[in-house]
Structures are given as C-alpha cells and as structure tokens.
Amino acid sequence: MEEKLQNNKEEAKKIISTHNPIEDFKEMINYRYEDLTLLALEQMKNIIIKFINESFKGSYYIKAIDCVKALRDVCIEADEVDFFNNFLEELKHLFPKEKYLEIWKLIIENKITLISNKENLKSKSTEEECRQWLSMIDKKGVITSTLNDLDQLIDDIE
What we know:
It is a single chain. The protein is mostly helical. The protein has a single domain, classed as Ku, C-terminal domain (Serine Threonine Protein Phosphatase 5, Tetratricopeptide repeat, Alpha Horseshoe), CATH 1.25.40. The protein is built from 8 helices and no strands. α3 packs antiparallel against α4. The longest helix has 18 residues. It starts with a helix and ends with a helix.
C-alpha cells in the first residue's frame, strides 16, 4: 500500500522559472510530500536579483516587485522573517539607490518594508522600526521628490 502511494504522488517542482516565478514558487511552497521551503526561498531571492540585474531601463522591475511581495507573504506565513528582512538589507547593498532609483521608487510606492513583530511574532523589528527602515531608504527625499515631480509633470500634461 505504501509503495502505491509513493507512485501516485505528484512530482515536485524543484526550479523556479523566470516565466512563471510566483506560480512556481507557490507550487514549491505548497508541495506536501517534501519540505521545499528553504529551496524555494533561495531560488525566489535569486530570481528577484536576476530580474533587477537584467532589467533594461527597469523592464523587469514590476516582475521583481511582484516576486518580492510573494516572498514577503510566504516568509510571514512560514515563520521565515529573518530570511526576508536580511534579504531586504542585502538588496540595499546590491542595488544602491543612487544607481537603482526606479526599483527603490517601486519599493516605497508599494510600501514594501521589513516584516514587523505585529505581522509575525518571530520578528525582532517593531512596526515603527519597519516604517523607519522604509523612510531611511529615502532619507534625503530624493525618491519622493522625484515621485512628486513626476506627479506634477503628469498634472501639467493633463
């Protein structure tokens, strides 16, 4: 009987593609015959970095942001808070805002921040610290002033 169950179980997805990263990621996370969480988290992290690195004039930034949101949701649910919070810190170093202003604009617009201890008790960060983290990204107001300039330009066009 045990052998029959083994033969009927679906094959695990082991690689997240750039074509359907969120679907692949969720499939790996939800695979019930083996815990693929850490493998899925690492792969999603690498996909996000790949999207940012390979973007031409921000062409993959929206896809990267969608993946960051999916990663954040899963990290809250799977108690992998440190993984996500460390990843956001890593992004700050890999992609300095002076050179990657557009991706940081999207992070701010989407209010993507560290996971707080209100969202998951395993987090060491308070809600206030998470808000401060987000505002520290734009401590000189460069990003938000650019967003305001863009809003003004759109108003002028209309």
